[in-house]
Design a protein that fits this description.
Elements (H helix, E strand, L loop, with lengths): L7 E9 L4 H12 L5 E6 L3 E3 L9 E10 L3 H14 L14 E7 L4 E2 L4 E2 L8 H10 L6 H7 L4 E3 L3
Antiparallel strand pairs: 1-4, 1-5, 2-4, 3-4, 3-8, 6-7
């Protein structure tokens, strides 16, 4: 008889800048709520951000808060499957993308493997992460963090 793991609070960054990026992010947010052993417990507003260390049109970004019993590697594999189903191609580093999903935090875990680094190593450097993360986990983002990235160009979308 297998026992269920205790749920872990995880934060996932969502972004897209190809196709109907806003619709893609909204659909992906709903798809997160359908992952096995996972519950969507919070969602940020949508934000429009200029590409940062990337190419192409502006991005639509958000952050989702999940309660999940999936292991961190299983969560990552599920997110990568969602990216693939959304048509994500990886022709080169920081290429435009139909959908990008990143595990920002997985409970209090510190993970450093070839596949996954948690907390995400650059989360404090990116307006497209900090602003939506502040919506769902305000205590994680300081005013100094936001001030440091405000020149990256970010605006909250209606809705």
């Amino acid at each position: 008889m297998s026992t269920l793991r205790d749920p872990v609070t995880a934060y996932v960054a969502l972004g897209a800048n190809l196709g109907n990026a806003q619709q893609t992010v909204l659909v992906a947010m709903e798809a997160l709520s359908l992952l096995p052993q996972t519950r969507l417990t919070g969602r940020s507003h949508l934000y429009c951000t200029a590409p940062h260390e990337a190419q192409g049109p502006d991005f639509v970004n958000a952050v989702a808060q999940l309660e999940t019993r999936l292991t961190a590697p299983d969560l990552l594999r599920a997110l990568q499957g969602m990216e693939t189903r959304a048509g994500r191609l990886r022709p080169h580093v920081n290429a435009p993308r139909t959908l990008d999903l990143d595990v920002l935090f997985y409970g209090q875990a510190h993970i450093s493997s070839a596949e996954l680094i948690v907390p995400h190593p650059r989360w404090r450097e990116r307006a497209f992460v900090l602003y939506p993360l502040a919506d769902v986990w305000p205590g994680s983002v300081s005013t100094e963090d936001l001030a440091r990235v405000e020149a990256q160009g970010v605006r909250r979308l209606i809705g």
